[in-house]
Design goal:
The chain has eleven helices and 28 strands. It is of the alpha+beta class.
Amino acid sequence: MAEAPNVHEDGADEWLPEARASRVTRLSLIWAIPFVAALVAGWLVWTTLAERGPAVTITFRTGEGLEPGKTKVKYREVEVGTVERLQIASDLSGVVVTARFVRGAERLLAADSRFWVVRPRVGVGGVSGLGTLISGAYVEVDPGRAAETARHFRGLDEPPPIRLDEPGRRFVLEADALAGVDRGSPVYFRGIEVGRVLGVELAQDSGSVRVLVYVRSPFDRLVTPYSRFWHAGGVEFGTAGGGVYLRLQSVQALLTGGIAFDSPRPDAEPAPEGARFPLHASERSLEEESLARGQPFLVYFESSVRGLRPGSRVEFRGMPVGRVTSVGLHFDPRTTEVRVPVVIEVQLQRFGLVQGEGASTLDLDAVAELVSRGLRARLESSNLLTGELVVGLDFFANAPPARLDLSGDLPVLPTVPPELEALTASLQGALERFAALPLDAVVQELQGAITDLRGLLRDPRLGGALTAIERATAVLARTAERLESELGPLVAGLRAAAERTGRAASEAEAAFATTREFLGPDSRLRHDLAQVTREVAAAARALRDLADYLERNPQALIRGRAP
């Protein structure tokens, strides 16, 4: 502190100390509040920025149901992002959606990831998205498998049938035309849904249709190189050898169509990813095509072939062994005959005649041997309701001798008439033989015999014979009475004989009376006379037996018949 002189009253100067005031500045506590607020705000901003994930753009055809700040992006019902902005695409082709994902969502943004809007839908796969009626629409993500990531995506108009992370394999089916199958249609194995149709496209040459199907694991192991696929869309109705058939895969297949397959050899190795298979029109056509690969033969039929068509079966004792490939007409100018040539294909391997692919000369030699033993073809009715015919093969022991004709382009099998035609021919032959009989001469002979019989019955000597028989019967009765009184037990036998003789006489008299009664034009035949004659013969035999007994035993007249 500097000293300043003091001035006294007397004017004398005196140095005295002098005080000086200085300005001191202090920081107030109120300034700590905005500082702390700034720190909190900075921390929140840093935290928000640190937790923010990547932003992506997704182009959809329409922005229906999407709202910025409200619509969520989900993966398996878990929120992974939010829609921040909607804007029209520069080319007006759709709506560009900007979505912000959470931190760590980069693995959901592979280059092949797929996005779609989940909203209520009624489609091929059924009813979906009903929960969004309350919660609102949201964007679903299906993460891809690619190693590269992307930030711009093209959204799907419809949900994909199969997620990319679902295990299974894809296969390609090829068909001439598509019927009742669309993206999302089910794939069945023995009535169980095991997969879906992923898409349908035309081949590069536009000559066929390709159907990409997906079979889930573990059912994909059922697809082998020997598997067969066919359309299973709804109702299949038709006629076959067994009658009318109706096939229905399921109610969903009835409404949306579908594809079914089977595996004749399930023990084979599974087919690789992307394997190609033909897609048949129906299970029925598949069965018919399985019978088509065989040795062709030509058969000629002389009778009507109404009800026979290409595709009709060829059967051996009821078992299908082939099919008819064509039915035509052939006019032979040499004989002026019109015949019906029918080309059939027979699977000789079912007879054990083929060891490899196709038929060889040795195989045809074996067929020729079977023909020499009676193998023939004929038309047979398979369905009386529809009138459908089949070509039946069988052995006929009474068939005329024939051989397998190998002179033409196709071997010709001999035929026999149909069973009904053979029966008709047999009846016609019997009628012809009956008509060839000399019926007039037979009728004349019968008329002559009847006239002779009437003359015999009118002859008075017949009446005398009957009277004599009646008298003889009376004598025999009196003799029997006398013998009964004398011979005792023997007489009883004679009495029984006499009674039989009396009854015979009565019957003879009744027959004589009947004969006299029917001597007119309406007389009966003389069967009654024959009966009387038999009774008289019986009486005569009884008398002969009595005479023989008395001749051997004359003492019986005195002692009686020995017991």
